[in-house]
Design goal:
The structure is a homodimer. Helices cover 29% and strands 24% of the residues of chain A. The first copy, chain A, is an alpha/beta fold. Chain A is elongated, with a radius of gyration of 19 Å. The termini of chain A are far apart.
């Protein structure tokens, strides 16, 4: 009884680790959100594919656990990493009480890393990852984390910066960051990382505050040392301050 | 003129993405710290291998840039991700003034993600990544970030928790976290992620404070919701609070 929770990276295919590909190939049943299932289907050698729509995560995880308990070798695929805002935790909660089920988490390249690589090296020093979705987290908690990250000068990566119902959340987040941070702070957005139509743009925090985002956007906010070098966003590790460069 | 900065994941081999493997295979010159070079050598098809010892990062990056400018196709390999405390930023700084050089950053699975997968899902909600090394960052900055992360209830992943010269840094960090966080907070350490002798241990923040660490250790500190489920460390995304599980 084996259930793999697999992070497939930003776009599947080339962005998967060899471990993720091998785990997928070992399975006879593939479970996931339809978009992610389609990304990895060319690498899947089994025949059973089960999907549930968005916001049906608990159903999806229950289905994966039930399939594995019924004797199938199951791959539950997640975009990016299996853990970071992924299904790994929920699978472990749903599988509680079934010690006979072997759950293996296969990590993947989350959007903070894949988006950073598109931009340069914005997260090369201490950073915080914050989701702006208040579906499962009160906005006050999100606001407190934004404030703390700004005050302690973390570089920040924002997931889920906006959706149709939350069109102004990125603007609200920027307003909080601007309480502490310079309006000239180097920021960037990346859209459709690793997929068709990938695009990115470097801009100031002031500009970011007026920029629309959607659920395909990942946002990067520099720390006070972040700069633009040859069109790339770079947060130094401190070698310059050390006087050695 | 092409220079790839490649994140090879925690242990190289199976932990690399297909993109990283393909980039490595396209190169005739391999540059890196000796341990990481050895991890990927079986996949490298060129003949020129150049290494520099630890703490000689600027030399290493300068060497990689010079080789690429001389016409070689160069792979600079980094453990984990290319950006997170990696060489990508330094390469871009060193390559400044050479727009003819094509630098491509290939992201990889950083220790925060690979260690999390070993433990369960400790970083499934907002988290902060902090290095305890004060070689390039003043301790006051590190302490302020620890304090901010604790106060805003981030899950936290600590890199470089100790070294021979900094034997008590993890203890000092825990003391700061304990100003705010419960001594019963669920924490964990993982050693040698993805390599021979990989091991992990879940423990309380109070116990962590008395636990030795070394440069092969990655440390995870839960938020106030983090719990142990079937021997795994899980930070919920909030489905339970929503009353749907």
């Amino acid at each position: 009884m084996k259930l793999y929770v697999i992070g497939i990276g930003p776009g599947g295919g080339e962005d998967m680790t060899l471990r993720a590909v091998n785990a997928l190939k070992a399975c006879d049943t593939l479970v996931g959100y339809p978009v992610y299932v389609d990304l990895v289907k060319p690498l899947f050698e089994g025949e059973r594919v089960l999907t549930t729509p968005m916001k049906r995560e608990i159903e999806r995880c229950t289905m994966a656990v039930e399939q594995a308990l019924a004797g199938h070798t199951v791959a539950m695929v997640c975009s990016g990493d299996a853990g970071v805002y992924g299904m790994a935790g929920l699978i472990l909660e749903v599988a509680k009480g079934h010690p006979e089920l072997d759950v293996e988490i296969v990590p993947g390249v989350t959007a903070a890393l894949s988006g950073a690589a598109v931009l340069g090296a914005p997260l090369a020093h201490d950073f915080a990852v914050i989701s702006l979705s208040d579906l499962l987290t009160p906005w006050e908690t999100i606001a407190a984390r934004l404030r703390a990250a700004a005050q302690a000068d973390f570089a920040v990566c924002l997931y889920n910066p906006a959706s149709k119902k939350r069109a102004d959340y990125l603007h609200r987040a920027c307003e909080i960051l601007l309480e502490t941070k310079s309006p000239q702070t180097v920021c960037a957005i990346v859209r459709n990382i690793g997929r068709q139509g990938e695009s990115s743009r470097i801009l100031t925090l002031e500009q970011l505050s007026q920029t629309p985002a959607d659920m395909f956007t990942t946002v990067f906010i520099g720390n006070s040392m972040t700069k633009v070098i040859g069109g790339k966003m770079v947060t130094p590790r401190g070698y310059e301050a050390r006087g050695t460069l």
